[in-house]
Amino acid sequence: MSKFTEDSKQLLEHIGGSENIVAVSHCATRMRFVLKEDKKADIKKIKNIKSVKGTFAQAGQFQVIIGNEVPDFYNEFVGVSGVDGVSKDKAKDAAKGNMNFIQRMLANLAEIFTPLIPALIVGGLILGFRNVIGDIKLLEGGTKTITQLYPFWAGVHSFLWLIGEAIFFYLPVGITWSISKKMGTTQILGIVLGLTLVSPQLLNAYDVAKTAADKIPFWDFGTFHIQMIGYQAQVIPAILAGFVLAILEKNVRKIVPEYISMIVVPFLALVPTVIIAHTVLGPIGWAIGSAISGVVYSSLTSAFGWLFAAVFGFFYAPLVITGLHHMSNAIDLQLMAEFGGTNLWPMIALSNIAQGSAVVAMIFINKKTKPEEEQVSIPAAISCYLGVTEPAMFGINLKYVYPFLAAMVGSAIAGVISVASGVMANSIGVGGLPGILSIQPKYMLVFSLAMLVAIVVPFILTLLLSKTKFAAKFAPED
Predict the structure, then answer these.
(1) Where's the PTS EIIB type-1 domain (predicted)?
(2) What confidence tier does 347 reach under pLDDT thresholds 50, 70, 90?
(3) SS3 230
(4) CA pair distance 338, 33, nearest whole angstrom
(5) Quick check: 343 and 425 in contact, CB under 8 A?
(6) Which of 3, 27, 284, 295 is catalytic?
(7) What is the arithmetic mean of pLDDT over 238-245?
(8) What is the H or E stretch that residue 4 is in?
(9) pLDDT of residue 158
(10) Is the pLDDT confidence value at 105 over 70?
(11) Does the active-site annotation cover 384?
(12) Are the beta carbons of 309 and 415 closer than 8 angstroms?
């Protein structure tokens, strides 16, 4: 009998038994259930199980936080329950049966960017490091950068752009690959499609605006022309093209005999998609992306930018609960492509910090009365300050409610400071405290002030709220 046997039996009982489980999987810290009837799960009793650190429902799944030992717990639970586990992807597919159309659409879009996040984070760190050594005048009385004085670091600066360019300029390749993977179609065709959007023979997307219309190169087909415009760093054209390719391939495969499908299907799926991408989808997607980024940028830089910042800063954390926060990646990347940076992403980093600071306050509040809670709260706070907020929100802040609200308020105030000061990030990257590395050098000082606000305000507000009737009203039962 393993140390999780009894806890697994209790979880099975309180979740409604094996007959209530449609699918079960696990991620890094959580058990993920798709249930026939969510109301059969006794959340209060589940939270009282020794190994359980919290529960929440998201994207059609009932999730139980276990911690780093979740693989062992999962194996024991599968043995006790007799339920066959499935992959996370299959569990997500099953969960979509519990969603409406809008939720399914947004979940699908979010899943496109999830596999790309590691690369985007690496790219953000690289651009941030290049900021430090190549853009900030740290030496000789603030007149020289490190790269200006040291050839070695100048070489590092130049070399690292090889990776940064691969991640951000050639982002459409990653998007079309991710869509092919998600849709279960031929992934190499997705990669090839992405490459046709960023080929070196095309006019670079960054040069289109400064090129006269009659100077843009084109393919001459006699009776008509197709402009040779690239879509480097463009998000929406790649999404549209990726889905058209997947849909075409699936439908062509249905009607083509199996014995010639290897030859016919790739040709009839890829070639028409590339043509459509460069004649219809690319221009339309560019227009849509420019409109979205233009609206966001104008909102953040207008006289009412502070209001937009306050609303976004306040509600970003609830977006994380729904899983819709991944959608902000697309907007950030579009802003980077259109304006050479993003003023949205700095607010996300500040929201991460604010949630962590609320947890730190809870550590202080419960230090004597609930010392065992530090097993969850200390790692959760560290995780927040490094850009991952889910352990803090689901393990601590939402459990008590008032620290979550305190963090939302702190995030809103810090966001207003950031936007009112015109703070721009070169790229998205690691959230939380390391996020300052992605901020454009001239804004680092004022962003530091916003970070300080995101640390101090949630901490103090959490302490104050802990002494109110509001906190007592939502106090979890031990």
Answers:
(1) 5-87
(2) very high
(3) coil
(4) 41
(5) yes
(6) 27
(7) 94
(8) none
(9) 93
(10) no
(11) no
(12) yes
